[in-house]
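worker-3 :: picked Rod shape-determining protein MreD
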Amino acid sequence: MYRLSRLRYIFPLGLFISLFLDGSLSSVWAKFFFSYPYSMMSELVLLWLVLSYYFEEGIEIPLIPFAVFAGIVFDVYFTGILGLDIFLYPLIVELTKILSRYFDQSFLTVIMIFFIDIVVFVTLTYWAYSLVGITHMNVGDYLVYTLAPTLALNLVYFVILYWPIQMIYTWALKQRKS
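worker-3 :: tokens ->
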């Protein structure tokens, strides 16, 4: 059904826009996002992937291949090498699928699952970077100076973008129901 719906255009376009905005917002607002000792990571790609899972309504968007592709593009464009995002984006999509089995879909449960997704994503990134020696931050500093601001930023994104994205999906799926 994905091939026959408007989502075949809307979903990749939204994914591209979220990739573009993640980098652009981080660049434009770098003094706000990365003012010592605080560091916030904009995760609009994760927001788009998670909300797409909830709003697809049986269309079954191939989220894992798109998540891998988004990870490749993000890693190569922003870091110059294949890194963590190629693995973490699909992992977070799977985590969302697993967690959604246990909860009914409502705004509060979706924001709770997104909260968990961000915590897992940022914590795995921190852990991997600590393991290879890229970061030397202790766990307490990580929780206060990186995880908390990142959660705050991305939960604000979620609250602001939840209904507009839902309206886009409703519009895209309306054709199918007619």
